[in-house]
């Protein structure tokens, strides 16, 4: 009797092991086919850019196969620099200088496996999804009311007549502020540039903004007469009938790109992430360029109104270390 029960128990254990092994095998097969996990996309992009990317992904049949998590630039940048390829993401869209710096530290991104046809040469592990360019803008009604001369340079905004009437983004909070600092240092050097920046910050008073779009909002509201921020936003505001005009500063129009990169995890989900990265560029750019009108790829065109008069690049590669140096320069000018 005991032998019979023992035999039954052994048979049940053996049968359980068979089912367990079968289940594991099925899970392994599902994972191997890339069906088990969704692609996790971490992005610092604005809502408009996220909508364009999701439209492209859904149009390509990837609805339900990914999840998007939006983070601020500082938060996502901090995760990249702290976690490397251990980050909980398969695909990243982020300010290019952060991607460059994270790759230098961790070698965490895979080389892209598709042809991009970009107008400029970029590293093998990322390609831009959009670009933002800086410029001056003014409220024409306030300028007339205050009897102010039309500025042609960032230096003009540091003159005494603009005291309390200027708004700029704070480089400590907004990468748009970096476009301003790059222009000042390029044109005037750090010594003269610090004096100009000091006077400009004094003129801003309480109008030093934490977001890149903050200065334009202040200018549109008539709280200040002039500001510095994203060029395409000012162009669009003017086209919509706001009393806004934009000026390409003589110091130059500097730009920052945001790019897509695939995290090097060497698993089936990474292959799917690479396909999605290609879709974002091949299918998503037609909508992205409408909101961020800077041509980045062959065959793309933008209207003349969206072509800055003084496009320039900073002489050194843009990295997190350089950003921190320029943040220190900004703070020392206060």
Automatic annotation (TrEMBL):
Q: Which Pfam families match?
A: SBP_bac_6
A GO CC term? outer membrane-bounded periplasmic space
Signal peptide (from-to): 1-22
Q: Which UniProt key words apply to this protein?
A: Signal
Gene Ontology biological process: thiamine transport
Signal as a keyword of this entry, yes or no, is: yes
Determine the domain of life of the protein's source. Bacteria
Q: Which SUPFAM superfamilies match?
A: Periplasmic binding protein-like II (SSF53850)
The yes or no answer to whether the keyword Signal is present is: yes
One Gene Ontology term of the molecular function aspect:
thiamine binding
Designated name of the protein: Putative iron compound ABC transporter, iron compound-binding protein
């Amino acid at each position: 009797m005991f032998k019979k029960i023992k035999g039954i128990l052994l048979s049940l254990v053996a049968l359980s092991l068979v089912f367990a092994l079968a289940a594991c095998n099925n899970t392994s097969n599902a994972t191997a086919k890339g069906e088990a996990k969704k692609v996790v996309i971490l992005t610092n992009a604005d809502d408009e850019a996220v909508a364009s990317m999701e439209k492209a992904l859904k149009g390509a049949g990837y609805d339900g196969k990914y999840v998007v998590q939006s983070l601020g630039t500082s938060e996502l940048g901090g995760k990249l620099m702290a976690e490397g390829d251990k980050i909980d993401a398969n695909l990243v869209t982020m300010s290019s200088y952060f991607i460059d710096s994270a790759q230098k530290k961790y070698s965490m991104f895979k080389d892209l496996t598709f042809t991009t046809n970009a107008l400029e040469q970029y590293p093998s592990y990322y390609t831009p999804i959009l670009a933002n360019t800086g410029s001056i803008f003014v409220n024409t009604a306030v300028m007339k009311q205050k009897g102010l001369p039309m500025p042609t340079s960032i230096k003009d905004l540091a003159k005494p007549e603009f005291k309390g009437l200027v708004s700029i983004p704070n480089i400590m909070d907004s990468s748009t502020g970096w476009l301003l600092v790059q222009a000042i240092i390029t044109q005037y050097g750090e010594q003269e540039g610090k004096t100009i920046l000091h006077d400009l910050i004094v003129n801003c008073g309480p109008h030093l903004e934490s977001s890149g779009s903050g200065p334009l909002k202040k200018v549109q509201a008539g709280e200040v007469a002039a500001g510095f921020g994203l060029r395409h936003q000012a162009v669009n505001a003017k086209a919509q009938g706001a009393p806004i005009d934009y000026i390409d500063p003589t110091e130059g129009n500097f730009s920052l790109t945001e790019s897509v990169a695939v995290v090097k995890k060497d698993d089936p989900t990474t292959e799917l992430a690479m396909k999605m990265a290609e879709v974002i560029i091949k299918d998503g750019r037609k909508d992205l360029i409408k909101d961020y009108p800077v041509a980045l790829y062959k065959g793309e065109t933008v209207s003349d109104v969206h072509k800055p008069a003084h496009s320039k690049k900073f002489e050194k590669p843009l990295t997190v270390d350089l950003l921190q140096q320029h943040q220190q320069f900004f703070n020392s000018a206060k």
